[in-house]
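Please describe the entry underneath.
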Amino acid sequence: MFRNSLIAASLAVFAGTAAYAKVDKVSEVAVTADLTAIKNEQAAAYWATLADDLENAIVARLVDRIAEDGAKITVDLREVELASSFERAISADDAVLVGQVNVSDQTDNSNFDAYEMTVSLGNATLISADGTSVVFVSLDTPEAYQSLINAFADNVVKKLE
């Protein structure tokens, strides 16, 4: 059984504004991915619940910060990367999630952030129940999928702090 915790070695690349939005409360999280744009049927099936899974993972990390008048977080995942990541995933280093993250404060227009985030499975390590590090060699496992989601969600929340 695997724990859903990642070692800090997860690779996250941020490009965008130099200053982070200061976010105390969040009112909405929305994640989108146009899976109809993925022509590879296996890739589309593999990523079928990605938007909902990532949205739920981010919300779960923010549960104590949810409020009606908080900031809005939107994530638009790049479908091209989803398809090509699945198709070329010869090794775990090839498996990536890439998305545009926008944070907007509903009460203060000057408090915003926008950046592109890339998370690679090759640098995400999972720890098994016995404490052994698990290194993924392929994308084709539920643990690999969950590790990508966890790494992305962790890094979105980290940028809010």
The longest strand covers residues 96-105. Residues 3 and 151 are 13 Å apart (CA to CA). The two ends are 31 Å apart (CA to CA).
